[in-house]
Amino acid sequence: MPEKYFEVRWHARAGQGAKSASQFLAEAALDAGKYSTSFPEYGAERSGAPMKAFNRISDIPVRVRSNVEKPDIVLVIDDTLLGNPELTAGLDEDKPLVVNTLMEPSKVRELTGFKGKIAVVPATDIALEEIKRGIPNTVMIGALVKLTEIVPLDSVKEKVTAAFSHKFSDEVVEANMRALERGYQEVKIDG
Questions:
Q1: pLDDT digit of tens for each residue in the chain (191 aa)?
Q2: Do 126 and 178 touch, CB atoms closer than 8 A?
Q3: pLDDT value at residue 1
Q4: Which of 17, 104, 109, 186 has the fewest CB atoms within 10 Å, measured from its CB?
Q5: Which UniProt keywords apply (predicted)?
Q6: Spatial separation of the C-alpha atoms in residues 50 and 94, rounded to whole Å
Q7: Three-state DSSP class for 10?
Q8: 12 φ, ψ (degrees, to nearest 5)
Q9: Residue 89 CB partners (closer than 8 Å, separation 6+)
Q10: How many angstroms from the chain centroid is the CA of residue 66?
Q11: Where are the beta strands (DSSP E) in 60-169?
């Protein structure tokens, strides 16, 4: 029987935090007693260039090291990428496409042609309101956890707190916790 992992594919532009989000998710999964991997794929390595990040999470050791081709969820951190057919490649219609956007799910459906589940969250706006920076990765992790429950939200909160508390003030850590919680609460799914 082939091994089955929970597979995540992130689409973003370099510098938007997809690699960090993928890493936080993998570490939260490890803390929750699961096995996990996280790795990015860059095209032209420059800020603003399209890039991908991947996760595999499982109750058994993860032995596959290739890119995710049949994701259980796809997260799009930059809605200017919506015309790219790679976004929904391999994504079954019963799996969610999650987009950081102010658009309604119907508009995302029109732009992508995806007929399955579409979830939207205004992650950049939430990040600007809470963190005062337009880096939406923490918000997107909250949305992912809400839609999949692959790891407990508390595990992600602990991991983000541990990672940020060494670099930033308590105020910044708390702002990220609020952003994470809002992503969890404010994601809307259609389909």
A1: 346 899 999 999 988 889 999 999 999 999 999 999 999 998 766 667 899 999 999 999 999 888 999 999 999 999 999 999 999 999 999 999 999 999 999 999 999 999 999 999 999 999 999 999 999 999 999 999 999 999 999 989 998 898 888 899 999 999 999 999 999 999 999 86
A2: no
A3: 34
A4: 104
A5: Oxidoreductase, Pyruvate
A6: 26
A7: strand
A8: -160, -170
A9: 69
A10: 18
A11: 73-76, 97-100, 118-121
Residue type, 82: L
Which segments within the chain are labelled E, that is strand?
A: 6-13, 35-42, 50-58, 73-76, 97-100, 118-121, 188-190
Type of residue at 10? W
Q: What angle do CA 100, 156, 108 make, to 5 degrees?
A: 15
Interacting residues of 25 by C-beta distance below 8 A, sequence separation 6+: 8, 36, 38, 55, 57, 141, 144, 150, 151, 156
| Residues β-bridged to residue 64 | none
What single-letter amino acid sits at 100? N
Token readout for 66 is 């290739």
Distances (CA, A) of 30 to 70, 78, 180: 22, 27, 19
Place of tokens 């920076």: 133
Q: Where are the alpha helices (DSSP H) in 64-148?
A: 105-112, 123-130, 137-148
